[in-house]
Amino acid sequence: MLIYAINRILQIIPVIFILSVLVFGFVHALPGDVIDTLTATDGEEDPEVRAALEEEFGLNKPIYVQYFIWVGSALQGDFGKSLVTRRPVNIELIERIPATVYLALVGIGLSILIAVPLGTLAAVRRNTLTDYSAQISSLAGISIPEFWFAILCILLFALHLGWLPSSGYAPLFEEPGKSVLYLILPALAVGFRQAAFTTRLTRSSMLDEISKDYVDTARSLGLSERKVIYKYTLRNAMIPTITISGLQLAGLLGGTVVLETIFSWPGIGLAIYSAIQLRDFPVIQAGVLVLGIMVVIINLLVDLLYRVLNPRVGLG
Amino acid sequence: MSKLKISNSFGQQTRREFLATTSAGMAAAAGAAATASMPGAALAAKKKGGTLRFSTRADARGLDPQRNVIYYVSHPLAATSGGLLDIDENMDIVPAIGEEWTVSDDMKTYTFKIRKGVTFHNGADVDAPAIKWNYDRVRDPKTSHSFHRSFFKLVKEITAVDKHTLRIELESPSAVFLASVTYYPVNLIAPNSVGQVDTHPIGCGPFKFVSWKRYAKTEMVRFENFWQTDAAGNSLPYLDAIEGYPKKEDKVRLTALRTGEVDLIENMSYADAANFKKTQTANYNTWDIPQVGAGYLAVQSKKGPFAMDAADGKLMRQALSHAIDKEAIHQAIFNGLSESLNGFFSSSSTWHMPDIKNVKEYDPEKSKAILRKLNAMNTPVAVVARQAYAYMHQTGEIVYSMLEEAGFKVTNEVFDNPVLRKKYKKADYGVDSTANSYRFEPDQWYSVNVLSTGPSTKLRTGYKNEAADKLIVAARQTRDKQVRMEMYTDVESMVNDDCALIYTHGIPLTSAATKKLKDYKPAFAGPFNISNGGVRVAYMDG
């Protein structure tokens, strides 16, 4: 297991290098640049001003030189300064990572807590009311647009019932009580939608597993149904569920712009989106790179978890 | 049945009126008796203060008020800054840190007397040398935004004559220069704090900066040494603190107000505003913020079928203009809350011009007739709009169908600002659905967007009209407001005749606040930090 883990970790080094080249290349291929943004719609463009700003931001250097300067600094933990706010990228972006990770982890945790029992029950009680209910609710979760569900949650729980704040954020370790209150609605919005996918997947995986010979063998050996389902079948059925949950988590780390906007959640997605609109290169580069590294790490953890669930999984 | 009449020296009252009067009198007497028994300290007027929680649609881009162009748009941070002069709720320029000024006869020299005893938040003096340092910084391309810099385009030299006298000399005469040193965009920062301007700005506004977490929260506290006082001599502002909470989603901002999470919101959605004003008057105050700006369609007339120098360019632009149904935009996009415009200034502005001529009425048949006559049916038109503002691209969508109906072959695309700017430069569009605001001084609009040498004209539309150019330059050098008004009316009539800019509507903005917010008076287009208004005189009750 240790050798397997070390091998997998070594594999991510070239992945991160390629990722950094792609991120840098794509960012600089975006149409429009930050100088355009800074000179404003009404602003008169002065070539001298453009040259001065390009000099200041290092944009007049060859692209490969810019890349190596950026990578060199990033390796030392310095992502530079935002070209728009002039504040360090670490303040603009890196400090927002905890909010994103917090929401993503709780959202995905909530999704698993809903989806695994519901999907399992639906499979075990196939073609019963439980199964139909699970299928209808997961279909609703997939069909209802995320932003609409979020707004509905706000109107119901904040405006009409007054149980929860409509939006906002408080750091977990500074104001834990308030933080949890702020978290509930966005986590519910994230969890409900992700659970819809995972429930269907868990159900179909469970149905596959239940029909396999080893389940009949276990039953014929006199094992209780509970033990057959929860100890053997579910364990095997969880592999695709974990894969999808890992991918969902990776997606949530960078793709909750809509929910961050609706719930005024100061996460990394909103910051990157805003930076893209302003062509704030250092912020985009750092944000996408950090997200990419997080995705790589999540994939690594998922792979390691496969190995725990099924020791036959090899390096491939 | 006759009512009981009770006679007194003031006339006659009904029984009900009598009971009401006497009850009120007894209550007043009881109140007076209770007051008389209160300790002396409690007799003093209740101190005005409290913390205002203000939710905005957008957040500031950065903290340096001279580098960040979006700073002024109702952001809470605007309360940390101040300019040499102020505007009031009527959009008039009034004294502030500059308490007096003189203008030379040739309108090329402005001399300001600087108010004594005014300080920045760190205690440094706001004096003539400090203001000169700020203005020099705004004029430096490396340290300021070009939009801010454009206000000093005419400046030749700035001199701190002495500690309390500032002289500004201009390259050419201007009767309107005062607007360039008013509030935004030439906010002042403490020169000795420039090293921290991107992390902790030190201004001279009514509130001191405390912290800024982008897209999350802005905190400010009352500046105890702010220069302005109320009529009774009490120091302003009254509020103890302001907390800003950007919430981009309109519905969420409104919900936050209704659940008591915030006290004041800006930019209510058009769909919500109409209903909210009808149903929630008991619990909330609402304000239709006076607008000086306009939504309009900018026609690209540098090249292509609408070009100024194309043989049929003017007729083609007329065909465009006749195809636009302003009433449909008014109803569909603004829920009936907007105002149809024929010129840049809406009726909220003292510069509103009712006599503008040459307005092209909505008549798609005329458009079709022109296109047929020119054998130009299915002429391609690219309608573009900016992504950041929903009403711009929603208007673009409606304009798309109007132009299609009139016989053009239309595409409609939405872009973010950097891409749109590239399209402007290449003249790679036909009609831009856009808007402009915050130009309370007409010269700031006409010299930038209508004058053929104006930066926006050169960048975007390529509009050229020599007669209009002469009037704009002459109006800048004319002191008499009425005469200027007539000149601008003529300019707008020419613009309408040329169909280079098709003004469509005033952009309504509705703010709302809990009734606990007292004496709040917003100014045009959102700035809430205004002389004797906005957050300077507002306070929270209870």
Strand content of chain B: 15-25%
Number of helices of chain A: 14
Average residue pLDDT of chain B:
87
Low-pLDDT segments of chain A? none
Helices and strands of chain B: which structural class? Answer: alpha+beta
Principal-axes shape call of chain A:
globular
What overall form of chain B do the CA principal axes indicate? globular
In terms of per-residue confidence, which ranges of chain B show pLDDT below 50 for 5 or more consecutive residues?
Answer: 1-44
Assign the CATH class of one domain in chain A: Mainly Alpha
Rg from Cα of chain A: 24 Å
Commentary on this structure:
The complex is a heterodimer of chains A (316) and B (542). Chain A has 316 residues and is an all-alpha fold. Chain A has a domain of 221 residues: MetI-like fold, CATH 1.10.3720. Chain A is built from 14 helices and no strands. In chain A, α6 packs antiparallel against α11, α7 packs across α9 and α11 runs antiparallel to α14. The longest helix of chain A is centred in the middle third of the chain and has 35 residues. Chain A is globular, with a radius of gyration of 24 Å. In chain A, 38% of the residues are buried. The mean pLDDT of chain A is 85. With 542 residues, chain B is α+β, with helices and mostly antiparallel strands. Chain B is 30% helix and 21% strand. Chain B has 16 helices and 23 strands. In chain B, the strands form six sheets. Chain B has a seven-stranded mixed sheet, with helices on one face. A six-stranded mixed sheet of chain B has the order 16-20-15-19-17-18. Chain B has a four-stranded antiparallel sheet with strand order 6-7-9-8, with helices on one face. The radius of gyration of chain B is 27 Å and the shape is globular. At the A-B interface, α2, α3, α8 and α13 of A face α4, α5, α11 and α13 of B.
